[in-house]
Amino acid sequence: MFLDLLQAAYPWTKAFHVIAVIAWMAALFYLPRLYVYHAERVGDLGPETDEMFQTMERLLLRAIMNPAMIATWVLGLLLVATPGVVDWSQLWPWTKAAAVLAMSWFHGWLATRRKEFAAGTNTRDGRTYRIMNEVPTLLLVVIVLSVIVRW
Ligand code: HEM
Fold this sequence. Notes:
Blueprint: H1 2-45, H2 47-81, H3 92-119, H4 126-132, H5 135-149
Helix pairs in contact: 1-2, 1-3, 1-4, 2-3, 3-5
Protoporphyrin IX containing FE (HEM) is lined by residues 14, 17-18, 21, 25, 72-73, 76-77, 79-80, 85-86, 100, 103, 140, 143-144, 147.
């Protein structure tokens, strides 16, 4: 019964999964960019700029990044539960799962860095955030190749 429902909803579940993924990725790309500017400029521009960055970072995390991650996970797991969608004897579900777990770790890493900026205890420089900005790009490539090429 529930499985029939999942099967009937499959294209919709997949469509909303991809929509949630796009929102999540947009935030995962933008937040480390904000951290680059925050880490590099805050000394020159004073406490008002610091507060403005903090507000942008908090809202991006709370209003977009967290809800988008939850929606991506819930809809993704519904797809996993849909009969005939995932064949665990193939390689692609495993590479995708590994990259998705790494993406979720990156999300948590960014959330911890936000708390440090809010407490005024950030120790990392702009260069570190520039480098970390590449992490979601690399993981995105692995995920899209996994689901589309299906090795
Ligand atoms: C968070 C946990 C996630 C789970 C459990 C999950 C699971 C799934 C499953 C089972 C499918 C269906 C595959 C098919 O019908 O062929 C799917 C499709 C898809 N996923 Fe995810 N996914 C997750 C996160 C992500 C992320 C982070 C991305 C991108 C960064 C992503 C991108 C996609 C895309 C583009 C498709 C559509 C592929 C197609 O058209 O066949 N997913 N996902």
